[in-house]
Structure formats: structure tokens, C-alpha cells
Amino acid sequence: MMYETKEAKIFTCEQSRYLAEQIASAYGVKLGNVITSTYSDGEFQPSYEESIRGTRIFIIGSTHPGPENLMEMLLMIDAAKRASARHITAVMPYFGWARQDRKDKPRVPIAAKLVAKMLEAAGATRIITMDLHADQIQGFFEKPVDHLFASTIFLPYLEGLNLDNLTIASPDMGGSKRAYAYSKALKSDVVICYKQRAKANVISHMELIGDVTGKNVVLVDDMVDTAGTLTKAADLMMERGALSVRAICTHPILSGNAYEKLENSKLEELIVTNSIPLKGESKKLRVLSCATLFAEVMHHVHHNESISNKFVM
Predict the structure, then answer these.
(1) Taking the mean position of all CA atoms in its chain, how far away is CA 74?
(2) How many Cβ atoms from other residues are within 10 Å of residue 133's Cβ?
(3) Ranges for the Ribose-phosphate pyrophosphokinase N-terminal domain (predicted)?
(4) 99: closest CA among 72, 148, 132?
(5) 96 pLDDT above the threshold of 60
(6) What are φ and ψ of residue 299, in 5° steps?
(7) Interior CA angle at 96 toward 41 and 44, to 5°?
């Protein structure tokens, strides 16, 4: 007897509901029904209010700090496993704790590996994420990881600006590979910023490798946290003769006084996705939605179709 393949169901963690609603709409289904009960001490319990037995489900939730965002994803996955879902895909537009991907000094954790193992232990059978802080984090998983590139969102926007003398820049040495990929796609020059840190989020010195005189510069990075690196780089480039400086950053963490730094900097605009919710407003912020990208990939995954074109810069 032949059985018709069930359509996938999409659920969301509360902190990503704004994005999950857009993804579900682009996918063509309604968000599944989940109720979260909260105890007086802050402990919470998600509950699926519909059957998911034998179904492929997608759980949408970025895991940016605080820790309750990751905990909610883990509880959602565990509940789905115990409700006999057939496939459980964690859709994590922003994979949090990814900056701790190695031991950079003695006696520190590798948090990205720990998170990967927790997701698998909870019951995730697949991970879909975007612009990991370090590509090698995919190797921390024993389950399939679909690592999407936000360049498929940003490149059309940059091309639409029709900037003359375009130059792509990396705010640090670690982002040079990403910058070169963008420059290849846009047929532009590349410059690199070399920075030294006094401690986390504090830059002691920055130098520019390359010439930006008379150029329209676009800084490329996977995330913007305090905005210290980006704003310092933008100011330095304008001092060195750049015509304009923009930045594209996939994940807008924007913590501390980042919005104040952005407003007071010489950045013309900061272009981000809606992978995590914004904490404030700025006239310099331009938000591009990643909902259609995730909806398309989720549809292809469910129907066992190729998604390789989403991995190309």
C-alpha cells in the first residue's frame, strides 16, 4: 500500500516568532501550535498542541544569548522526539556560542562543540543554519548540516547600488576568505584590516592593508556585536581617502552601546538580516529578510531536492 508523504510542519521558539511567521508564509503553511507554560521561578515547558507523529518538523529558533534561547530549542527538540516525529530539523538562522570554536588559551571550553552535541542528544536529525562564525563548526556534528550563505541575499542588494570603484573589505584577518569570495562575485578589489585586541570586544590597535583612496568600500562580516571593529574600520578608511564606507553583517547582535557607536560613526549604512531580533533602531540600519531563503531550503529538504545553489557565494 502506498502512503502519501505528509507535508512538513513548522514550529517556532518564541524569540524567533517574528521570523518564523515570515518563513511559514513563504513556505505556504501555517505555523504549528505550541503552548509554553512558565513556572513562577522562570522554568518553562513547551507543549505541541497537535499530532506530529511520523511527520517531518522544522523548529525555527536562533540561539543567541541569553541561555534560555538555546534551552528552548533543546526542549522543543526533546518534546518532538518523545512525540514520535519522524525527522526533527533545527532551523537556526543564528547559531549562538559559535565564537568559542577552539581553545584559544588554556582551561576554556569549546562551547560550539558542546552545543552541537546537546542538539544531537536532544534528538535533532538535521541542522539548517546561516553564516557560521567558523565553517569548521559543521564538523562538530554527526548529523547533516546545511550551512547557508547570506551572500545570496546581500549580493543582489550590493549590485543594485551600482557603486563605482567598489572595494570589499574584511574587518579582520579571519574574515579574509569571506571578503575574497564577495570580491570575486563582484569583480572588485579587496583590503584587509589588521587589528589587535587588548581583551574581548576591546581593540588596542588597527591598521589597513591595501589602498582605499577614491573607493566606495563595503565591509563584510558574519556578525556585528558591539560595532567597535566596524565603526573603527570605517573611520580609519574615511581618513585614508575612501569615498564611502558601508558594512554588511549577517547577524545583528548589536549589544552594549553599539547603536550609539553606529550613529556616531562614518558608516553610511549597516546592512543586516533579520536572523535575530533587533534591540533598537537606527537610520543607518538596513534589514534584509532571510525568510525566503530558509523557506526555499526547507521545502527542498523536505522533498529531497538539491540545495547546492544556496551554498555558492
Answers:
(1) 18
(2) 21
(3) 9-123
(4) 132
(5) yes
(6) -65, -45
(7) 20
Q: Which three cell numbers stand for residue 13?
A: 521558539
Which residue type occupies 71? M
Percent of the chain with pLDDT over 90: 84
2-31 pLDDT, tens digit per residue, is 344 578 999 999 999 999 999 999 999 999
Residue-wise pLDDT for 152-205, tens only, equals 999 999 999 999 999 999 988 888 889 999 999 999 999 998 876 556 655 566
CATH architecture for the domain at 151-288: 3-Layer(aba) Sandwich (3.40)
Query: What ranges do the domains of the chain cover?
Result: 9-149+292-311, 151-288
Using pLDDT thresholds of 50, 70 and 90, give the confidence band for residue 308.
confident
SS3 (DSSP) at 173:
helix
**Distance of alpha carbon 75 from the chain centroid:** 21
Peptide bond into 66 cis (omega under 30): yes
Report the pLDDT value the prediction gives residue 310, as an integer from 0 to 100.
74
Q: Which residues are catalytic?
A: 195
State which fold the 9-149+292-311 domain adopts: Rossmann fold (3.40.50)
